[in-house]
Amino acid sequence: MARTAEAVNAVIKAYDVRGVVGEQIDAAFVRDVGSSFARLVKDSSVTQVAIGHDMRASSPELAKAFADGVTSQGLNVVHIGLASTDQLYFASGLLDCPGAMFTASHNPAKYNGIKLCRSGAKPVGQDTGLATIKSELVEGVPSFDGEPGTVTERDVLSDYASFVKNLVDLSQVSGVKIAVDAGNGMGGHTVPAVFEGLPVTVEPLYFELDGTFPNHEANPLDPENLKDLQKFVLDTGADIGLAFDGDADRCFVVDEKGDPVSPSAVTGLVAERELAKEPGATVIHNLITSRAVPELVTELGGTPVRTRVGHSFIKQQMADTGAIFGGEHSAHYYFRDFWGADSGMLAALHVLAALGSQDRPLSELMSHYETYSASGEINSTVADAAERTTAVLETFADRTVSIDRLDGVTVDLKDGAWFNLRASNTEPLLRLNVEARSSSEVDALTSEILDVVRA
């Protein structure tokens, strides 16, 4: 069936499909997306599509509808059932076939969506297929006259667990106590499988799969959602805390004191470990990752490559440069050994391996990678993002060394501090990130910028 462009554009975003179930997304819509996706990826080498889904109540029905759409175009479906997003990427890599993951990640329970990839977990975004799918949903997806495909089921959880563990030397993790907040998301599905057989103690929090998220939002990027884990680490005497988002492709780290570890510091640690395996390799970082990351990569003889914010840009750079690893401030971590896709679990295993290989507590280990203070991302609602950005640039003109416009504006100041202002693509927001040598400098600079932004 044909749909209005407005309705389709509201749901098919820059990188995925996402909307309110029953209002913006239903089984009929998803069936057409599946049918169009099958047409997009079908060629002589593609005979099947892997499908996985999260724990949301709507996910099984929507995944089935998508499968109906795929098979209606003559392709087969391999249904892997309950899965984390990186588990679906694993299936796409293992089976060398396109994939579809049903999840709305950290969004509230009323939402659902689809993350799509081509064979080998290659991302599908606006320029690599979503625009084509949009057009077909508006015009009507052409039907297929041949034989429909078939649906088979395959459990890849144990294969996934073995694969990620084999990528990291975990021989020295014995005795580590790990507090894990799964946020009622898919970490409650993958963590038991991955940590089974390891000589560690796992203290589980909110492992029950529940797409209503009864305890807190499954979005560890919001500091509010880390508070339960921070307390749990202290209560259990854990050496490390891990918090996964709803589809468990992102992982945040808390140290033994209950303090959050910056994703930039995790990026630095993993980069150091990967460069030890392949000296001189390329490491990707986005432009609001701490400057400590490219400085460390350069110091270690690697090649840092800076990119815009967003997983599609990082994955493209991973492919273009052959980078061994990439990291983002949002706790997405990308690995060449994982088909260039992101896996929070794999990053967590690297941190555990590093912790277990030496005698210091995690807070001391990570201090080596946290050489600057940062504000974190601060959002401001503004009527005119461009006008407010110009006002900020004028305010700091006499203190500015350089301005970079790769993504928003990144301003380097004479005192060594820097900040980035980026307008949201979907909301009337300006996003601010500040970094300086000390927290007091960060606080002062942040306040000064926000006074102008919010004037």
UniProtKB/TrEMBL annotation:
<dbReference type="InterPro" id="IPR005841">
    <property type="entry name" value="Alpha-D-phosphohexomutase_SF"/>
</dbReference>
<keyword id="KW-0413">Isomerase</keyword>
<keyword id="KW-0479">Metal-binding</keyword>
<dbReference type="InterPro" id="IPR016055">
    <property type="entry name" value="A-D-PHexomutase_a/b/a-I/II/III"/>
</dbReference>
<keyword id="KW-0460">Magnesium</keyword>
<feature type="domain" description="Alpha-D-phosphohexomutase alpha/beta/alpha">
    <location>
        <begin position="12"/>
        <end position="131"/>
    </location>
</feature>
<dbReference type="Pfam" id="PF02880">
    <property type="entry name" value="PGM_PMM_III"/>
</dbReference>
<dbReference type="Pfam" id="PF02879">
    <property type="entry name" value="PGM_PMM_II"/>
</dbReference>
<comment type="similarity">
    <text>Belongs to the phosphohexose mutase family.</text>
</comment>
<protein>
    <submittedName>
        <fullName>Phosphomannomutase/phosphoglucomutase</fullName>
    </submittedName>
</protein>
<feature type="domain" description="Alpha-D-phosphohexomutase C-terminal">
    <location>
        <begin position="377"/>
        <end position="451"/>
    </location>
</feature>
<dbReference type="InterPro" id="IPR005845">
    <property type="entry name" value="A-D-PHexomutase_a/b/a-II"/>
</dbReference>
<feature type="domain" description="Alpha-D-phosphohexomutase alpha/beta/alpha">
    <location>
        <begin position="159"/>
        <end position="258"/>
    </location>
</feature>
<dbReference type="InterPro" id="IPR036900">
    <property type="entry name" value="A-D-PHexomutase_C_sf"/>
</dbReference>
<dbReference type="InterPro" id="IPR005843">
    <property type="entry name" value="A-D-PHexomutase_C"/>
</dbReference>
<dbReference type="Pfam" id="PF00408">
    <property type="entry name" value="PGM_PMM_IV"/>
</dbReference>
<dbReference type="Pfam" id="PF02878">
    <property type="entry name" value="PGM_PMM_I"/>
</dbReference>
<dbReference type="InterPro" id="IPR005846">
    <property type="entry name" value="A-D-PHexomutase_a/b/a-III"/>
</dbReference>
<keyword id="KW-0597">Phosphoprotein</keyword>
<feature type="domain" description="Alpha-D-phosphohexomutase alpha/beta/alpha">
    <location>
        <begin position="266"/>
        <end position="372"/>
    </location>
</feature>
<dbReference type="InterPro" id="IPR005844">
    <property type="entry name" value="A-D-PHexomutase_a/b/a-I"/>
</dbReference>
